From TrEMBL:
GO terms for molecular function: oxidoreductase activity. It comes from the Bacteria. The keyword RNA-binding does not apply. The keyword Ribonucleoprotein does not apply. Coiled coil: none annotated. PANTHER family: OXIDOREDUCTASE, SHORT-CHAIN DEHYDROGENASE/REDUCTASE FAMILY (AFU_ORTHOLOGUE AFUA_5G02870) (PTHR43639), SHORT-CHAIN DEHYDROGENASE_REDUCTASE FAMILY PROTEIN (PTHR43639:SF1). Pfam families: adh_short_C2 (PF13561). Belongs to the short-chain dehydrogenases/reductases (SDR) family. Keywords: Oxidoreductase. Signal peptide: none annotated. The lineage of its organism: Bacteria, Pseudomonadati, Pseudomonadota, Alphaproteobacteria, Rhodobacterales. This is 3-oxoacyl-ACP reductase. Residues 12-191 form the Ketoreductase domain. CDD domains: SDR_c.
Amino acid sequence: MPTATFHDLKDASVFITGGGAGIGAAITEGFIEQGAKVAFVQRSDASGFCDDMQDKHGVRPLFIPCDITDVSALQAAISTAGEAHGAVTVLVNNAANDKRHDTEDVTEEFWDWSQAINLKAYFFACQAVIAGMRAAGGGAIVNFSSISYMMGNAGYPSYTTANAGINGMSRSLAREFGPDKIRVNALAPGWVMTDKQRDLWVTPEALAAHLERQCLKEELLPQDIVDAVLFLASKTSRMMTGQMMVVDGGTVVTG
């Protein structure tokens, strides 16, 4: 359930990548609870999730099947969302793939695939919403990064490279499009306890070790990330742009 109401998000046209599963699904529901008009893309079928939203909230998000590495398909999806809900004024670049890999095993094909998902798609989604946001008098973009690169984590160097790139890209776009009242911020979650994380990587020992690193000794949940996204999307943060917001229970220290 939402912990705050952001009145300006009611009827906002929101577009989310990867919005039908994991953190993305929680974000979609969070915007629906605020009264926003939500469209999202995902490669896998999210019809069941949309059914759940319809049953729970009486509102069905617009699901557009799309592989975000196909830039033309991603651009077309954003255009479809605009036709359905009006020009997109909130973009959440959430979709990512943190598949583990060893540096010495990385091929050029794997590198290009990883960057296409984790960085390239973010840029072209941003590019696709700029004109509509400008015409609407402004907008907000939230680009998901991760504390992984800030921690210097090993095990997925292509992913952490993209994380750092997202932060740099967000700052440059914030500078370029600030005069159009388009705000661009990055959001870096810590280890969020999604079903995927629990299935693949969470063990009692690993979780205990990570909680020891956090200042706040509680598990990070999807709603904690939703609340931050809603804040960055709303006019509550109207003078905040070009920033990286970290939501990780105090694992890393910024500044």
